[in-house]
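Final paragraph of the annual report: two paired records, presented back to back.
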Amino acid sequence: MEKINIGTWPLSGDYGYISINEVYKILTYAFDKKFYEYDTAPSYGNGLIEFILGNVFNGEKKVKFNTKVGNHPFNGKSFEIFDIKKSLDNSLKRLRTNKINILYLHNPRLNSKKLEKLIDFLNNLKKIRIIRYSGISLAKNFNIENKILEKFDVIQDDANILST
């Protein structure tokens, strides 16, 4: 894993208007400066930023994508395995890749039993090399037991300098 990766939510338009040309310039500049890992989600710009990332990098082998499942554009939250598979397949298509570096559960508010099933599913995706690492992007004001958190390779906390 890279020590620094580029978060793409602010580039999605969700924080306010940004031209697609400006997004392309920013992503190209970051790549030229040797930033190769990008954090995204299908809900960022309702899939737009994943689509742009796929267009900009178009299969570039140096680039690693970290994305999320569980928060679906236009359809809300669902952590059912069927919905997660569909979300992952759509992300792979938009990103123009066949594997994800880190796949995060996007702000789940689930009990330990349900999380255990999802962890098993993520571990199976690792075995078949669709994802490299499993992750959880934590939900604000929701506590998950440490014994569950320890089963993820990566924990992402909800912190953003653009949010106050």
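The closing record of the year follows.
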Amino acid sequence: MKGRFISFEGIDGAGKSTHLEWYAERLREAGRAVLLTREPGGTELAEALRALLLGEAMDARTELLLMFAARQDHLERRVRPALANGTWVVCDRFTDSTLAYQGSGRQGPTERIRDLADWIHPDLWPDRTYLFDLPAPEALRRRAQARPADRFEAEDVAFFERVRAGYQALARAEPNRFLVIDANESIDRIRLVLANDCASLR
């Protein structure tokens, strides 16, 4: 039986990473084989590209193409084989991030991003996407307390407001795939929502 593909999305600082391992553990406790991974990253090559993307200055087109190069390697080497073996894949970001960040945030060509997605994974989108929604100023405050900023996290509030709006538009367009989570809620409340939805996917 084919595994399920789950993605976690949201602007930097929204808190999604707090729940990833916990969610994967709930699946394991329910008897599921789980691959917990991330984008960009997840393979040796994709992690090398991630380091470039987070740390090196580059133009918007280079950034976009590197995102999809990392995604192709990740899908080919890890995600597709895992799903084919019945493993549930829980991924920290997927193409929705590219649409929100490189599309809405960078104000890039959304139609080109969708063309690349149709080329790289026309048959594969997440079964469920959890969107952690948080106002950009609050996310910025949280990030500043947590860690030094990478190249994306160093962007200004206006950039993240555009990213957030991009995510919200994606969620409105696909309400059956997205579950929007109020990231201002307590950890316990968020995990209750996740647990209830996770049970419905089984």
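The radius of gyration is 16 Å. This concludes the annual technical report; the extension proposal builds directly on these records.
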